[in-house]
Every structure is written in C-alpha cells, then in structure tokens.
Design a protein that fits this description.
mainly alpha, 25 helices, 0% strand
C-alpha cells in the first residue's frame, strides 16, 4: 500500500463500494462498445512508471486472490484502465483475464468470457509463450466453463502446463497442472488417473521443495482417494507422509488462504453428499459465501453449489423443514442462471435439481420425467459421475413410491456408473443400499458381482496408493 500511495495510486477499494461499482460498469460499457480488433490493436507502451504500476497491481491481485478477494475488483479494474488509457504492456493480457474474472463473478457471462478470449488472443499477438501459460491458468478455471465443455478445459490446462515448462515459467506450469488434476476430477475423468497423476505431481513438488500449487493438488488427491478408498481414508494418507485434509485446512486458515480453505469446504461438501454423511453436510453453505464475498468463480465452486442443492433437497425430505427446500431452490436458480451460457456443462445439473425439487414438493409425475431427462443429458454430455448420481436419486425416488423393480434397475445403473468413474467406495455404498432394501432373490447376483469385481480389480491400485 505504501508503494501504491507513493506512486499516486489509491488504496484498492473493497467490493460494495458504490464508486467502484460505477467504475466497473463504465469499463464494461467501454469494452462492449469496442470491437475485438480495436482492443487488440491498442498501442503498446514501455513507459517505466506504467510498467511499475502494472507489476504492482499484478502482485496485489495474487495476494488478494488468496487472502482478501473483496479487493480483486478494484485491482483488476485499475490494470485494465491503465492498459486502455496508457498503453498495452506484457501484463495487459493478464489484466484482461483478471478483469473478466471480476465481471463474470458479478454475473455478466458474455463480457467476462469475452475478456478471457481477448486475453488469450493478445498474449499470442505479443508472441509471449510464457505469458500464455499464465493466462491459461486464469482463463480456463475461472472463465472458460461458461462456454466450453469441462472436458476441454482439462486439455487446455495440460497445454498450459507444457508451455510453462518449456518457457521456464515454473509457477504457471505448476498451477496449470494442479488445475488439470482438479478439472479432470470435476469433469468425470478416470479417478485412478486423477489419483495417480496428483500423487506423482505432489511427490515432484515435495522433492523440489515447491509450495506453489501443493495445496490445490493435495485437496484434489485427497478427494480422489476418498472416492476410491472410502471417506475415512485420511488415516492412510497420514501414514503415507502427506498432510491430512484437517491439517491442510488448518494451515490454510492460519495463513488466511481464503480461497484454499473455501475450496476444501467445497470438496468436503461433495464428498459428504456422495457418502450421504448428512450430519456433516448441513454445516456447509457454498452459495451464501459466493453471494456475500463474490470470490473468483472457479468451476469447483459452481459444481459445489450443485451438490449443495442436492444436499438441501435430501435434508428437506428427511427433516420436512422448509428452510432446506428454500436453500435447494436458491441453488437451482443459481445453476439455471449459468446454464443459459453453457447447456453442455449445466443442463443435466438443472434437470436433476428440478427432479429433486419436484420430488420434495410432491410433484411425482414431473419428478419422474426430470430424472429421466437428467440421466439422458448427463450421458450425452459425458458426465459419467453425474449420471451415476442421477440414477441413484432416481432409484431412491422409485423406492419411495414402492416401484421396487424400477428402483433396483436404477440403483444397479448407478453402481455401474460410479465404478466406470472409478469411485469404488461410492459404488460399494450404493451396493449396500441395494442389499439393505431388496431380498437376496431380487438383488444378490448383481450385488455379489459388483463387490467381487471391486476386490479383484483394485488390489494393484491399492498397492500403488500405499507406496506413496
């Protein structure tokens, strides 16, 4: 702040400042009134004071991203103002990307995503491969999910990782690989690949004594292990010399890494839902944090809201407390907003939340149709893990209605989807549900087959994991 003041700059303002909101709106109008070519052809500048201010704002951005997201809007706006008013510098592509993150967090998907696209084009125009890697590390997790399939975001992070490594940009290369592991998990990629790659990556970071990206990769690794091994696998992780989730969370809170600690809470919510740990699920509120703090909207947080909605409707039916229905409805409204930008990423999620809402409210015919459509959409858009969730919730719906044959069929489909994803512990949980609700005559063959398959197939994977 002292350096900023000495340079004649104001202290970065906090979100909610009326003048800041007005300035952001004015910049959005300016950007919207210009063509891509006119923006990409803005004059370049090597002015020393401008370069110093841009570097200072860039440092502010990464500090505030972890510790005080409420000031990100002010910093990113200032970088774009400097780029438009004084000239393009090598940090302008990052300025565009970071401002796009702020605009998107405010709900404007069109301008936010456009700023991300312009950032990548400008970085390429400046012939700066090193810069492209750092821009990818911002655009892909925080902006691209608005319009691009989550599966392609995984591929983009691999590209960013390779570019950064080739150019010597260790930080961007590392961060892109941490995001690659997380994106692969969130998009329904093979969990064993996620576990193997994040395990290898963490060992590499430890051997090089690199901290950048370690926490992000750790929480992805821990979630993948939980889904494969079971929700109490933290004990095994501790024996393998990797900090447990509890220790990582405590460290993030102690160091005031707000986004990391929030990311851990989001992972916990997803895990708790998939293992139906209702007592722990009721303590998490992803949506209220996003609305109050307005942090960068990582795809993890959006998917977290989806699971919060499912959680809320499940608890509403268990407790018959309308407050949970209201929370589920709020999550549905939030996901519906973003589905207008990307049907690929969000159509199946909206349909499943609508099914759960209809079931909770007693609209059974409507719920049945929504469950069917959500399964079809998840399959079409290649989200095998969410297809498994839809099959299971559909099975529970039919079981509640007394349609046992249909319920059994849906639950078996759920087991197969979870096993295809690699979530063997989740598949085992659903198998136990089948065994608890159906006679041996009805379900023993399928149940025994799935369990035996898990035991035989997974022994090598468990040995690999324990070698860590």
């Amino acid at each position: 702040f002292t350096l900023s003041s000495n340079a004649g700059e104001e202290e970065p303002r906090m979100s909610g400042n009326p003048q800041l909101d007005s300035d952001i709106s004015s910049m959005i109008v300016t950007v919207s009134s210009m063509t891509d070519d006119s923006i990409l052809n803005l004059k370049q500048s090597q002015d020393k004071k401008l370069l110093m201010l841009m570097n200072l704002c860039h440092e502010f951005f990464y500090i505030f991203q972890m510790m005080d997201p409420s000031r990100l809007s002010s910093v990113s706006l200032r970088m774009v103002q400097l780029s438009f008013g004084c000239g393009i510098t090598e940090l302008s592509p990052l300025a565009f990307a970071q401002f796009g993150v702020v605009v998107l967090s405010g709900g404007n998907a069109i301008v936010g995503y456009r700023m991300g696209s312009l950032a990548l084009k400008l970085a390429r125009n400046l012939c700066a491969p090193r810069l492209i890697s750092s821009v990818i590390a911002v655009v892909q997790p925080y902006l691209a999910w608005v319009a691009e399939p989550l599966q392609t975001i995984t591929e983009s992070h691999q590209h960013g990782h390779t570019l950064g490594a080739q150019c010597g940009d260790v930080s961007s290369s590392t961060l892109n690989y941490a995001w690659f592991c997380m994106a692969k998990l969130l998009s329904g990629g093979d969990l064993e690949v996620v576990r193997r790659e994040s395990c290898r990556f963490l060992k590499e970071l430890r051997s090089k004594k690199q901290n950048w990206g370690f926490l992000c990769a750790s929480i992805t690794y821990l979630l993948s292990v939980a889904l494969i091994e079971g929700p109490n696998s933290d004990v095994l992780v501790g024996n393998c010399d990797l900090p447990s989730e509890t220790h990582i969370f405590a460290f993030a809170v102690e160091r005031k890494h707000e986004l990391i600690s929030f990311g851990i809470r989001t992972h916990r919510l997803i895990r708790n839902f998939l293992f139906r740990q209702y007592d722990e699920m009721s303590n998490s509120s992803i949506l209220s944090y996003l609305l109050e703090r307005k942090p960068p909207l990582h795809s993890l947080f959006i998917i977290g809201v989806f699971y919060q909605g499912l959680t809320s409707y499940c608890i509403a039916r268990r407790t018959r407390d309308d407050i949970w229905t209201t929370r589920g409805n709020a999550a549905l409204t939030f996901i519906q907003h973003w589905s207008h930008s990307s049907q690929w990423n969000f159509q199946n999620k909206v349909l499943l939340l609508q099914a759960e809402k209809s079931f909770t409210c007693g609209n059974l015919t409507e719920a049945q149709n929504f469950y069917k459509d959500s399964i079809t959409s998840a399959r079409r858009h290649k989200f095998i893990h969410e297809e498994g969730v839809s099959h299971e919730l559909s099975g529970l719906f039919f079981l509640d209605r007394g349609l046992r044959d249909k319920a059994h069929e849906e639950l078996l489909h759920s087991v197969r989807c979870f096993r295809t994803w690699g979530a063997y512990a989740v598949a085992d949980r659903v198998n136990i549900l089948i065994g608890d609700n159906f006679s041996d005559t009805t379900c023993s063959e399928g149940h025994v087959f799935e369990t035996a398959s898990h035991t035989a197939e997974d022994s090598t994977k468990r040995r690999y994991y324990l070698d860590f």
